[in-house]
Design goal:
Pfam families: Peroxin-3. The protein is built from 20 helices and 2 strands. The chain is mainly α and 520 residues long. The termini are far apart.
């Protein structure tokens, strides 16, 4: 039996060897395929988790931008309202009206004289001033009157009310738009650098967990990407310039334009909504630019960031710069890089485009929404034509003239809306909500800022390059992040690095604009 078995194996050993080889190769091939499938599943799972993590980070970053704007806006509002005290002027006009009424009631003039002057002067002024009193707020800094100010005539006071009320509402709209964009740039730049810092730290694990490392390379990576507290604190402090200095230059420019456009109008004059819109558009053309080229050439950087000579002044005035503890060279280099990139973004054509869109929404809310509905009562108010009116014997009735309103009534509403525009965090800001909801390119712009210059951040991160053994892991994380950044916004995909005169930012923004326009 045993001998027969041995002879059978000897006769069939070649076939058995071939069969064993086929089975072994099949087993190895199956194990290889299963390992590749497992790796693909793990890679897809890790990519999905990374995309969700990045999307969650980005969305949270945009929510932080909104809260930051609402927290900073009251500071600028307080400064602007204090510089343009419309309520004080209104109180002075009310005082003059009360004195005039007292003189008229105590005079011994004939009965015909007050009947010819009082209705035209006191009644119109009374209605205009009552609208100011009902629709306006009194700022805390305006409760005390300035006794040293020389007395002004009623005409001068009304002209100052007209110019100041229009100027401060327009300046607040511009300030809200500029602060929104500046905050988006700042927080998204820091959000990008913080995310890259986390990627670097995760891609640089310790080779031996049981070995005690005397050097802390994680701090070097964090500081190289600007993810240190001192750099972030100093960088965010530069919003102080717009809140305390930039608005002054902006107010001077807007005020001179308002005086030129609205200076000839009498507060008692009746104007239509179309005329008001044309006047507002004329002001915007002078401030922002009449053409696309003029708007791109507008210098908004002077209102948002100080010059290099005044950068230390901002840190000193805000209490951030401490002469006793100077900043490290790495912090200074990181801060310089952030400020330079911020300046480049502000001076880019994309910034001008988004700023114009934000201003459009702000002025449309003020003029075409609030003024049209509250002051002009615009809407379908006419009754449908009857059968008799359409008969052959009926006369042709001309179309009704557009509704008109006194400029003083419009000024009262604009004065009240200034406090609504500059409203802070106690309740939702209507103007900011409209800007963020209707300007879809704002999120695309933030996504471009968040994802731009990613490769340059990794290549030019200073001396904090990872050890040679960890570079493949860094390259793998870099590739994964590049594919993940495309999911931040549906309109955004990463572009190449700068070549020639075109920057990666403008290339990416061009893709975002094309996709956004095709979907609208």
């Amino acid at each position: 039996m045993i001998g027969a078995t041995k002879r059978w194996f000897r006769r069939n050993r070649k076939g058995l060897a071939i069969g064993a080889g086929v089975v072994g190769v099949g087993y190895l091939a199956g194990q290889y395929v299963l390992s590749k499938i497992s790796e693909a599943r793990e890679r897809m799972s890790s990519d999905r988790i990374a995309k969700e993590n990045l999307r969650r980070r980005f969305e949270q970053n945009q929510a932080d931008c909104t809260f930051t704007v609402l927290a900073l806006l009251p500071t600028a509002t307080e400064n602007i309202i204090e510089a343009l005290p419309v309520e004080d002027l209104t109180k002075e006009l009310q005082k003059k009206r009360a004195e005039r009424l007292a003189r008229l009631s105590g005079s011994e003039a004939p009965a015909s004289e007050p009947s010819s002057t009082a209705p035209s002067v006191t009644d119109e002024d009374g209605r205009s001033l009552s609208s100011f009193q009902a629709d306006s707020y009194i700022h805390a800094s305006q409760l005390t009157s300035d006794s040293g100010r020389p007395a002004r005539s009623k005409t001068e006071l009304w002209n100052e009310v007209k110019i100041s009320s229009i100027t401060r509402s327009f300046v607040l709209i511009y300030t809200l738009s500029l602060l929104t964009l500046l905050t988006r740039i700042q927080l998204n730049l820091l959000g990008r650098r913080n995310y890259l810092s986390s990627v670097v730290s995760l891609a640089s694990p310790s080779n031996d967990a049981s070995t005690i490392r005397l050097e802390d390379h994680d701090d070097e990576f964090s500081q190289a990407f600007g993810n240190d507290f001192e750099t972030n604190r100093r960088y965010l402090t530069y919003s102080w310039w717009l809140l305390h200095r930039g608005w002054k230059d902006l107010t001077a420019k807007v005020r001179s334009t308002v005086e030129e456009v609205f200076g000839s109008l009498n507060p008692r004059e009746d104007i239509t909504l179309t005329k008001l819109s044309e006047l507002v558009l004329e002001v915007r053309k002078h401030v922002e630019g009449a053409t696309e080229e003029d708007r791109r050439a507008a210098n908004w950087l002077q209102y948002l960031l100080p010059s290099k000579e005044d950068e230390d002044i901002v840190l000193q005035e805000s209490g951030v710069l401490n002469p006793e503890s100077p900043s490290s060279p790495q912090t200074a280099a990181n801060l310089r890089q952030l400020l330079d990139e911020t300046s480049d973004l502000i001076e880019s054509p994309s910034f001008s485009r988004i700023l114009t869109a934000l201003n459009n929404e702000g002025f449309a809310t003020l003029i075409e929404d609030k003024c049209a509905k509250i002051v002009f009562k615009s809407g379908p108010t006419s009754e449908p034509a009857t059968a008799a009116a359409l008969s052959s014997a009926a006369t042709i009735v001309p179309p009704p003239s557009p509704p008109k309103a006194k400029l003083a009534t419009i000024l009262a509403l604009i004065t009240r809306e200034a406090h609504v525009i500059g409203h802070g965090t106690s309740s939702p800001n209507e103007y900011l909500s409209v800007m963020e909801q209707n300007v879809r390119d704002l999120e695309a712009f933030a996504a471009v800022v968040y994802s731009s210059n990613f490769q340059l951040e990794l290549l030019h991160s200073g001396d904090a390059s990872p050890p040679s053994g960890q570079q493949p892991s860094m390259a793998k994380s870099s590739t994964a992040l590049q594919s993940t950044l495309e999911t931040i916004s549906p309109e955004v995909a990463l572009g190449s690095q700068p070549t020639g005169e075109d920057s990666a930012f403008e290339k990416v923004w061009g893709k975002a604009v094309e996709n956004s326009e095709s979907t609208t």
